[in-house]
Amino acid sequence: MRKDSLQIELRVLTSSDYSAWKIAHLNQNDPLNKWDRAHRKEDLSKTAFNKILKSQKAARDSEKNYTYGIFLKKTGEFCGYVMAMDIVRGITQTAFLGYTLLNQFWGKGIATAAIQKFFKVAFKELELHRLQAGIEPHNKRSLAVARKLKMRREGISKRVVYLRGEWQDLVQFAITSEDCGIKWKGKAKKNY
Ligand SMILES: CC(C)(COP(=O)(O)OP(=O)(O)OC[C@H]1O[C@@H](n2cnc3c(N)ncnc32)[C@H](O)[C@@H]1OP(=O)(O)O)[C@@H](O)C(=O)NCCC(=O)NCCS
């Protein structure tokens, strides 16, 4: 697949996406590294899928987390997710950026293209001003993605997340609407 011809669609998953979701999960390779968390082949039932839809909707309705499915326009294939997590409004208007692809889609430029597109969604539709990504120092693929996206490397937070039974460091990257040439038009709380 030529990277410059990648056509990505981002959208909230609906019940009509069940078969694309199921096929993508069935076609995964064995887990490729310890960050390969999208990997699951156990419960691919319609009931399990509906539970995912329900929890994504609840997170949207409470403005906690917006999750978008990543699809290839050409084939309709479901590849994974990009999301704004732990949204804080008030005077910060910020969120953590999350992304994960099913592993048969790795190394094709899909994550970079999808996140690039997501910046517009986050800064225009969701009216966020800043996205922050915390990446484990050895997650080379993810670090490469942040660099390709020209996210600003802001430093290292030491022992900041508890993952896989240990406190882990995160390399912090951030990007704001201005960095993407988008004028922020949301409402921040006044009188602080
Ligand atoms: C991180 C992830 C989303 C990247 O997706 P992707 O579609 O493979 O990303 P891209 O193809 O856009 O870019 C990957 C880059 O990593 C580079 N890369 C691949 N394997 C690598 C390795 N072992 N070491 C260093 N760089 C590597 C590629 O060369 C590519 O850069 P390039 O386009 O300049 O060649 C995907 O690997 C994933 O889902 N991982 C598991 C979940 C995860 O880690 N999420 C992020 C949490 S912070």
What is this structure's SSE topology?
Elements: E1 8-11, H1 18-26, H2 46-61, E2 66-72, E3 78-88, E4 94-101, H3 110-125, E5 130-135, H4 140-148, E6 152-163, E7 166-176
Parallel strand pairs: 4-5
Antiparallel strand pairs: 1-2, 2-3, 3-4, 5-7, 6-7
Description of the structure:
With 192 residues, the chain is α+β, with helices and mostly antiparallel strands. The chain has a single domain, classed as Aminopeptidase (3-Layer(aba) Sandwich), CATH 3.40.630.30. β6 and β7 form a beta hairpin. The chain contains 4 helices and 7 strands; from the N terminus they run βααβββαβαββ. Helices cover 26% and strands 31% of the residues. The structure holds coenzyme A.
Number of helices: 4
Overall residue-averaged pLDDT value:
94
SSE sequence, one letter per element: EHHEEEHEHEE
CATH superfamily: Gcn5-related N-acetyltransferase (GNAT)
Which sheet architecture does the biggest sheet show?
7 strands, mixed
Contiguous runs where pLDDT drops below 50 for at least 5 residues: none
Report the count of strand segments: 7
**Helical content band:** 25-40%
Short recap of the structure:
By secondary structure, the protein is α+β, with helices and mostly antiparallel strands.
List keywords for this structure.
7 strands, binds coenzyme A, 4 helices, alpha+beta, 192 residues, Aminopeptidase, single chain
